[in-house]
Amino acid sequence: MPASPFTIFPPVTATTSTPFSFDRLANPWIGGLAPYEPGRPIDEVARELGFPDAAAIIKLASNENSLGPSPQALAAIRATATEMHRYPDGNAFHLRNALARHLAIPADHIVPTNGSNEGIEFLGHVFLGPNTSIVMDAHAFVVYKLIARMFRAEVITTPSRDLGHDPEAMLAAITPTTRLVFFSNPNNPTGTMLDEPALDGFMARVPDHVVVCFDEAYIELLPPTRQPDTLRYVREGRNAVILRTFSKSYGLAGLRIGYVIAPPACAQLLQRVRQPFNVNAMGLAAAEAALSDHAHLAATRTLVGAGLAWFEDQFKALGWSHVPAVTNFFLLKVGNGKAIFNALQREGIIVRPMDVYGLPEYIRITVGTRGENEACLAALKRVMKDQT
Ligand SMILES: *Cc1c(COP(=O)(O)O)cnc(C)c1O
């Protein structure tokens, strides 16, 4: 049969030869890297467990904004849809200027990233390599560790204090090879936070051969009076950088948009390792619109505050032990975290097991809408009863 000119892929033929050995050619440290395990997508769980209706599944696994994107961001997304044949503005002119006004910091201090995870990778490109190290809390956001290993840097972890970062221990752990110290503040997954005096104390004593990175993925969920003023360190040109994101408080996780705030000399280094179009045009427009939608952020804070308080009351009444949290998620001690995670999933509730964080007795639950929270607790009561 003559091949159709429209057949793009040739027919697959069985082969008996040994498959090509890519491992032999790969950088030897790559094979040993552990891939990141994200919260499970609703659609995947529905397929796997045979739920006929994916809409019946509740995902409280990735600290997303349960109110959804801001209506203003949605309008911006629709308005930009017809321009998707154009490359985005590689300089992110409008978003950087909007952020500069919002943060009261010059636009040359801001580097947009494809989610704040990409900011962590940029820091790795610029500051890490063999014979360097990072310092992080044992229960801090796991991506710091994954990226450090990708750049062959040593990972130095310090023990937590009441599941929060211990700045004294972190200071003491810094070695001559250390280049980056990470504060996940508030910390994912423990929901704990260091206040401004604790950070000031650390910054007063940190040596000048390290860069201190404040990952503030959830900071906008706190009332402004409770947000530590880390921007001050950057304005003063100190050895500090801040990571922020539109994924959590602003409800735009799917568009992948974050930014690094850094003194200009550092921002220029980060710009050198950035691909020209790392941030997409829809994300840029949506983020700019979301930034000015104060009502949506206020509604998000209110929903999260009420949800946290409701869960706390319920747990108190049940005698269950949770870690007091300041953001839109918390740890709950359930005994066998993996078993409860699996049992909840069968009930159509997706949460997060914590074994990769060395917390196998816990699950992490994102605060959802009132209805989602109630459904989650009802399912939890059922599966906890089964366990005992
Ligand atoms: C969610 C999260 C991020 C990454 O979010 P992006 O979607 O990549 O912006 C970074 N740090 C912490 C602590 C997080 O919880």
Walkthrough of the structure:
This protein has 388 residues and is of the alpha/beta class. The chain is built from 13 helices and twelve strands. It has helices at residues 42-49, 71-81, 93-103, 116-127, 143-150, 167-173, 196-205, 231-235, 264-272, 281-291, 294-318, 337-346, 370-387; strands at residues 58-59, 110-113, 133-137, 154-158, 178-184, 211-215, 240-245, 258-261, 329-333, 349-350, 352-353, 362-366. The strands form three sheets. The protein has a seven-stranded mixed β-sheet with strand order 2-8-7-6-5-3-4, sandwiched between helices. Strand 6, helix 8 and strand 7 (240-245) form a beta-alpha-beta unit. The mean pLDDT is 94. It binds pyridoxal-5'-phosphate. Pyridoxal-5'-phosphate binds at residues 63, 115-117, 141, 184, 188, 215, 217, 245, 247-248, 253, 258.
The chain-level mean pLDDT equals 94
Order of helices and strands: HEHHEHEHEHEHEHEEHHHEHEEEH
Shape: globular
Radius of gyration: 22 Å
Short structural summary:
With 388 residues, the chain is α/β, with parallel strands linked by helices. The protein contains 13 helices and twelve strands.
Please write out the topology.
Elements: H1 42-49, E1 58-59, H2 71-81, H3 93-103, E2 110-113, H4 116-127, E3 133-137, H5 143-150, E4 154-158, H6 167-173, E5 178-184, H7 196-205, E6 211-215, H8 231-235, E7 240-245, E8 258-261, H9 264-272, H10 281-291, H11 294-318, E9 329-333, H12 337-346, E10 349-350, E11 352-353, E12 362-366, H13 370-387
Parallel strand pairs: 1-10, 3-4, 3-5, 5-6, 6-7
Antiparallel strand pairs: 2-8, 7-8, 9-12, 11-12
Helix pairs in contact: 2-10, 3-10, 4-5, 12-13
